[in-house]
Amino acid sequence: MPKKCFLSLKKINMLIDSHAHLEMKEFDRDRKEVIERASLAGVGTIITVGTNLSLSRKALALARQYENIYATVGIHPHDAAKTDDETLDELKMLAQDTKVVAYGEIGLDFFRNISPREKQTAMFARQLEIAAELNLPVVIHDRDAHEQTLRMVKASGVRRGVFHCFSGDWGMARQCIDLGFYISVPGVVTFEKSKVLREVVRQAPLDVIMLETDCPYLTPEPHRGKRNEPSFIVHTARKAAEIRGMPVEELAAAATANTRRLFGLDTARRK
Q1: CB 149 within 8 A of CB 140
Q2: Are the beta carbons of 130 and 91 closer than 8 angstroms?
């Protein structure tokens, strides 16, 4: 990306990568350099997202090490079948830390079904209860499980969170927004075939849009095929702004403000 685009983004409130996995092994070799590149690209804050107990611990350790990194804790649906009450109790303890800003990544994945669906739904329901108990927003994973996910969120009473890596259509997005949730846009929006997601980006109110990389996954154009990293979020911001017909600086500023608001990054708890 041209240097002037990095500089234009750095003049405003810096971008936030609202969903990264810097704790994963893919970054063990060069994590420090990845974080430095993000800062140079105008990414001032990164939320690194736990997906099981071990990676939640690692995410929190990383957040404690870097002032501009925050963590979430939770059990991804892929790990639902091998999680017990003791694990959930430990996650609740981790969630007390001031660098933990949300509970997640939790939800349903009926595409890969690595954990049986009944295990996924039971664990999702339990973790929605825990998030409500802790008064934390939730980070929701929903893949090929739109109806069930929405049904469970509605029943839970949880009304604060984000549907990460949003994969539904505009009709579903409206339901999520009506429930009080944000819509997070990944690098997939840069793919030419992503017409449904682009329509969601076009129609969604600006005050519910967030941006993410989901790195090391879902690398945007023009880096597709490489490991994703937070600095690449600038390409997602540019495409989202193009779709909406607005300056990238305005789109980035709005997404940053939305993320800070959802995760309480300006509250006393984070000091």
Answers
A1: yes
A2: yes
| Strand pairing report for 69-73 and 100-109 | parallel
Q: Where are the beta strands (DSSP E) in the chain?
A: 15-20, 43-49, 69-73, 100-109, 138-143, 161-163, 181-185, 209-211
Cα 170 to Cα 102: distance, rounded to the nearest angstrom: 25
Spatial distance between the Cα atoms of 268 and 218, rounded to a whole number of angstroms: 34
d(CA 48, CA 64): 12
Under CATH, which architecture does the 3-270 domain have?
Answer: Alpha-Beta Barrel (3.20)
CA distances, 147 to each of 8, 141, 159, 162, 195 (Å): 40, 13, 17, 16, 21
16 beta partners: 45
Query: What is the spatial distance between Cα 211 and Cα 16, in angstroms, rounded to a whole number?
Result: 7
pTM to 2 decimals? 0.94
Give the strand order in the sheet containing 69-73.
15-20, 43-49, 69-73, 100-109, 138-143, 161-163, 181-185, 209-211
pLDDT in tens for each of the 271 residues of the chain? Answer: 444 444 455 544 489 999 999 999 999 999 999 999 999 999 999 999 999 999 999 999 999 999 999 999 999 999 999 999 999 999 999 999 999 999 999 999 999 999 999 999 999 999 999 999 999 999 999 999 999 999 999 999 999 999 999 999 999 999 999 999 999 999 999 999 999 999 999 999 999 999 999 999 999 999 999 999 999 999 999 999 999 999 999 999 999 999 999 999 987 444 4
Q: Rounded to 5, what percent of the chain is helix, strand, coil?
A: 50, 15, 30
Contact 108, 143 (CB under 8 A): yes
